[in-house]
């Protein structure tokens, strides 16, 4: 009887582990089969400097769409900072595009939570619309040729190896 109890406990534990793994897998990067060209943009950063998609040609680029009013966006920003520090070693670029907010709102947030990567302003949401980034947060990974390879809809802990290793791999020689 004791053996049956142990086997039952082991079976329940394995079921819980496997359901957790399936949940974790859904929370990673979603490959984009069609791999479309990333829509061009020309925006200003929070310092008023112009930035374009073309500035990042030849690099792996992580593009995060966010807003200060979005709790999941705010929650993932510290992990994006940590991810940026790790990805920098591999020459992967990261930027955040704020969707629809005024510069003053963003500046207030950045005083509370400084970011180590550029924050671009999309006040009329035209870039977010072109990228189909209407649910926030959403993050896209663009390869060196300018194609969208991955998407992550919803918040993530961006400093986990399961997310960073596939991004880094896009920049490795083939």
CATH class of the largest domain: Alpha Beta
Count of extended strands: 8
Count of individual domains: 2
* Outline: globular
Weakly predicted, low-confidence segments? 5-26
CATH superfamily of the largest domain: Glutaredoxin
Can you walk me through this structure?
This protein is of the alpha+beta class. It has two domains: 28 residues; 138 residues, Glutaredoxin. Strands 1-8-7-4-5-6-2-3 form an eight-stranded mixed beta sheet. The longest helix is centred in the N-terminal third of the chain and has 25 residues. The chain starts with a helix and ends in a 5-residue tail after the last helix. About 13% of the residues have low confidence.
Secondary structure topology:
Blueprint: H1 2-26, E1 30-31, E2 42-45, E3 50-52, E4 61-66, H2 71-88, E5 93-99, H3 103-112, E6 119-122, H4 126-130, E7 138-142, E8 148-153, H5 161-169
Parallel strand pairs: 4-5, 5-6
Antiparallel strand pairs: 1-8, 2-3, 2-6, 4-7, 7-8
What's the quick description here?
The protein has 174 residues and is of the alpha+beta class. It is built from five helices and eight strands. It has two domains: 1-28; 32-169, Glutaredoxin.
